[in-house]
Amino acid sequence: MKSLRRDFSSNPQAANVTSKVFVRSTKSGKVQKIVRELYLRQDIPCSSKLCSLCPSIAPADANGNITPFILSDRPAGTKAFPRGHYLVPDTNALLNGMDLFEHTGAFYDVIILQTVLEELRNQSLPLYNRLLSLIKTDEKRFYLFFNEFRLETHVRREPDESINDRNDRAVRTVASWYGEHLRASSKKGKKKKNLRKAKAENVTALSLSDYVAGLEDSEKLLDMISEAREARDTKGSARGQLFYPEYYSMSKLQTGLRAGTLHQGVFNVSPYNYLEGSVNVPAFDKPLIILGRDNSNRAIAGDSVVIEVLPQDQWKSPSTKLVDEEAVTRNDNPDTDDTEAVVTDRERKALQEEVKKAHGKNSEGKPQPTAKVVGVIKRNWRQYVGHVDSGSTGSQAASGRRQQTVFVLPMDKKVPKIRVRTRQAGDLVGHRILVTIDAWDRDSRYPSGHFIRSLGELETKGAETEALLLEYDVQYKPFPKNVLDCLPSEGHGWTVPASKEDKGWNGRRDLRDLLICSIDPPGCQDIDDALHARPLPNGNFEVGVHIADVSHFVKPNNPMDLEASVRGSTVYLVDKRIDMLPHLLGTDLCSLKPYVERYAFSVIWEVTPNAEIISSDFTKSVIRSREAFSYEQAQLRIDDASQTDELTESMRNLLKFSKILRQKRYDAGALNLASPEVRIEADADEVGDPLADVKTKSMLATNSLVEEFMLLANITVASKIYASFSQTALLRRHATPPPQNFEDLMNQLSKKRNMELDVSSSGALANSLDRCVDPENPFFNTLVRILATRCMTSAEYFCAGAHAESEFRHYGLASPIYTHFTSPIRRYADLLVHRQLASAIGYEGEDGHAGLEGVATRGKLDDICRNINYRHRNAQFAGRASIEYYVGQALKARGEKMAVDGTDKGVDEEGYVMRVFENGVVVFVPRFGIEGVVRLEDFVLPGESSGWNVTERRELAAHRITDFDPEEYTLRVQEKGHSEKERGVLVELFQRVHVNVSSVKEEGRGAGKRRVRVLITGASDKK
Amino acid sequence: MPLDTSTTYPLTRLRLDGRRWNELRLLQAQISTNPASSGSSYLSMGNTSIMCSVHGPAEGRRGDAAGSSGAVVEVDVNVAGFAGVDRRRRGGGGDKTSSRIAVILRSTFQSHLHTYLYPHSTISIHVSVLSSDGSVLAAAINACTLALVDAGIPMPGLLCGCTAGMSGSASTPKDPRHDELDPLLDLSLPEEQELPLMTIGTTTVVPGGEHNMDDDEEETTVALMTMDSKLHSTYTETMLAVGIDGCNQIRELLEDVIKGSNRG
Fold it and tell me: CA-CA distance, A895 to A888, in Å (whole number)?
């Protein structure tokens, strides 16, 4: 018999092959042993420009390119290493100080080892991704060195060595190899940091903080080292009290989830009460309520948590109180929380009062199931924008550079304050700063985090704008070079090719002789859409919607496309626009500007004079817009009877059709929803009243003209792409809201106004909303519509395969199918739809092989949908927050201008009560589109000599008693010891009230923070 | 959790196991490993190892018309329960992958071998996959070729198999302006699970009598090309070229093995 044993000695190659063996356990609990081959090699370059050996061995890739060497030949020096150095961080350094490595002031020429990258990936995926993107950028000069594959630096695990020790040894081996290697090829020292043992192997090792201490600006940088791990090291288990219960073990969670005793969902926090959270779980119709710190157990808004339902005797009604974290925990000291209980007495009291309410009779007051958090599946921590709570800085703040602990109050009220250790407390007070949460241990009442950077002083335009963008995760960095490289090389000089033989004309219809015009808001630069209408010989009309052909310029999967898909949407702030596509495309080449030829994607219908659609047609085209109107201009031109030219006539036809279409849509059950929006016209002059810029949105007939045709185009396109791509068509749906969402509103309406809301279908809802009219209160109807809108789910993008066809419905528009097609310049979804439509109509593209472009696979589309839904929502939030900030600033400016005797008298306006709490109400002020929380002290009682000062007023709250009736939705506020007649005021839901709006600076603890204060100066005319 | 090709390959141009794009795994082979069969071989490409034995040409089982024009090739593939990461106990009858491999091998060798020399007979090939770590089909082709050579069954040239893959987003057409392609040769299992993969088998045909005998250049024919993954058509040409190149490398290795063996 011959032996099958392999004879390695005969093969010279075999000597360099080794194998990596590791054991892993699968989800189902199986243990797998994985054996991977490793081919050790000597041609992995060191990538240092100092090296003279490596360039000769560096191999080429499949395209014959050699990766350029990254590490600089003049690395920066520090105090300890004046001659320059490269850094070889180990995993812990990266875990603790990723923000440091991203800092632009230091940390250049870093060698990242494969060992470290792998370890980092196992420990923290987000950090791993951040590191990867660092490696990909050129300017930081991070080099990924595959040490495990280099013959000299490969380290075999010793029999008794732990994996951590092995990895540490690998890092040290590389460091000493680099040292020798560079010494051999040139003369320059190189250093590294890794602890203890390194000394023995003659490698310079430093701990991260020691290293940073040697850099310039070290104080700022030291703050950026992650708080969490170091604290754990020093404090250890010796620390005293544990505030929070432990999470269940992973296996217990999984068993519970499978058995249905535990539930998983996303943790939400009530905007009115920071102690009240809710989790929507698939098992129940209504969200489960989570009350108090104990139960929410270190979950932060947005985390994916596992919850357990509490026994029935602990069920409570949702809070009817306004609870503000700042007000309740005002006096906490960040340094000494070891001695305090997790729930302070004040907080406990706030909760007790809620239990009392548990016995109410109507549905709002009924005890509802509560739950507690028993585990966190995935933290959704991000970077938070906030400011240092000036009350928490020590008195010695201004002096020395001692490290101290301060609280940072995040801008997002749903996030608890964050404990941050800093040496620059004095400098940071009064600044907008960016912090991140590192950990929330059981022994700490608040999460601990670290400082990342300062955005600038509070209330400066730059800082606040950047804060908004960061808070809503808007990508606002300028477009990188590789994106700009994708732009047409002609730049602004690009034109539609004159010759029709040009490949640009392939498959395009020449529509240049049509009388096309665009109608947009004033000052609009990115014109997405244009329209035309003309009579046909047979008595019908041809109506066309022409959309900027962005997909011609943005080819799938090039860097520009990828960047746009990440950005997802253009974000409009009051004074700034964050573009999805580079300026050149958005405002020039794609924009359907008047008088020039542009590529377009056209939808053309033949309609009867009664707006019945006979046929529809889609084509890529070339158009020349005759005029770009603003809504007002278009309206004036249509109304002006003396204008009888063809263009005006075509606009009149369009208007006529749009009215019929609109009526048809309403007949089908479309909803007319309201949103509390105001518009800012920022270009007003400086001298006038700053508030004059704030305008409520007015609807002209021309607004709805454009809107109707856009809706029609979107619906037509949606059916077309769905017919072609039954699985991958990108559509938009608005789910029918479950009737229980409307319960509260229905209750309130029937109680207070004796009105019925029929929510059985969108048509029924539209009709019943129309009936909710208060003759004495014209705004009442809008208020109800706003409230009804909030009961609904938000619309979302999805790909057709993800839902059954019956689920495609767009509830608000009462359309069975819908998509977004008409704004490709500012929405990525539209761009994808353009590609799908192009492929559906068989458009071949310039070079004839565009056949299936952009029709991505389902999985990829699902990812894109998730991202654009998220971006879309954030873009809206950011836009609203920007308006809110602007209104506040306008109020402040006005206040400063109008203040005669040094105090701000505010603006008297009308407001409407939206919600009633036990200790305050929420008032909506339509003039400014703001919602204001009115606390007890903000009620101006009859006969009161009004002092407007914030601190004076705060004192008042203590003297007031309230009488809150949760079933009638009324709140009576009166002064102690007075009979209600003379010094009391009764407020009820939906009531119109007189309010005084002003922007006030918070004094005392929250100093430097500004809020819009609403004072109720009197209940208005009640019937 | 180890790294994967799609994230690190673009950064370092090194694959998960430390190879460059155009490198084969370590290929080792022996022939005449089982004296009881007409021909046998053992071949390993990296951690994929295959044992193959050939019986025949032997008299056909039935005297019907099936083999009247030439020998019938029968292939039987058995993947050992311990071949993969999970130890799997198999019921009788073999699974889908192994019967797929068997069908491909059968049709490939049926047309490749000079079967017309052995009418009414059967050549049966038994392939045992001892350990599977990617490119199993390619390894099986190579092992069969060696075993058939060992059995002395005439064929026009060595039939060698190899796999080629494509990293990057291969489901969309390549961008003419960014003409960077990242093909990979001889995929291992983790790569195979991640990337689109094509198995290619080529053979060199020794020119026959009618052709010009002076022509030194051997003519390479693609005898087999199979791909299960989705891939945009613009990439196939590159992958094919890389695969053919890999087959040529393997052919040299196999020739060395054959020449180097001193069969008793």
Answer: 10
